[in-house]
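Students often ask why we bother encoding 3D structure as a string. The short answer is that it lets us treat folding as translation between two languages. Here is a chain of 292 residues written in the first language.
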Amino acid sequence: MIKSMTGFGRGETNSEISKINIEMKSVNHRYCEIVLRMPRSMNVLEDRIKRVIQQEIARGRVDVYINIIACGRNRATVKVDESLAASYMQAVKELKSKLPLTGEATVTELLQLPGVFSLEEPEEDIEQWWPQLKAALEQARAGLMDMRVKEGQLLAADIKERTGRINAFVDEIARRSPVVVEEYRERLRQRLHDLLESGTPDPARLDAEVVIFAERSSIAEEIVRLKSHLTQLGDCLELSAPVGRKLDFLLQELNREINTIASKASDLAINRTVVEVKSELEKVREQVQNIE
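And here it is in the second language, the structure alphabet:
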């Protein structure tokens, strides 16, 4: 079953050392582009994270948001630089001895002095994060893929319905094509009849002109190719592998064939049907832009 390139998934894991939240969303893109937003300390895991995502996703822009909350012994601690605080206090005493200053330095004021208090992050073993991070990543990816599959089913159903209409229009064109030649024969016969004084056109000349017209306006090959491309398009909708690019190519070929028919068929009814086919093909093309 085909897949859409649009989706969203969320994963969350908890352990005694951390809580990890991951959100993953994807949109249309020509290739597979993965954009990670995570703590800088996790950058060493970037390639591994991308490989996990690429196991299931071949096309689309995927934005991944990773949030890690450390717990227990991995929490940041407050560090007090006592020697620096003592130096500040000594400096205050020296200023008071030299200048007419009053008052005492308070703890609140010391807190505002740079370097007295600082947060100390514990040294992290990046490898300890990976099993938990991978589990959350796979959970988010599963949710994303589930949404992509469901939307893909809707896209496939719509495309099948539209290709059914296109097939019906092509059959209508195929039925009309021989009638066009016969109508041309009758118009040509009447024209020659009006031009000739005897009122009896030469049958050989008439047949020759009709044969030339039939060959020049024949759309039999285009009809066969249209039918073949439509069959291939329908087969692609049943595949589980990424088929977006192949569908896009088939649509280009379908448009090429229907444009050729429009240029060769000198018939108002056929041209009206061609317009209907092109309208449906454009709607299919819009849907294919969403397919992986």
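Translate back mentally: The chain has eight helices and six strands. Keep this in mind for the problem set.
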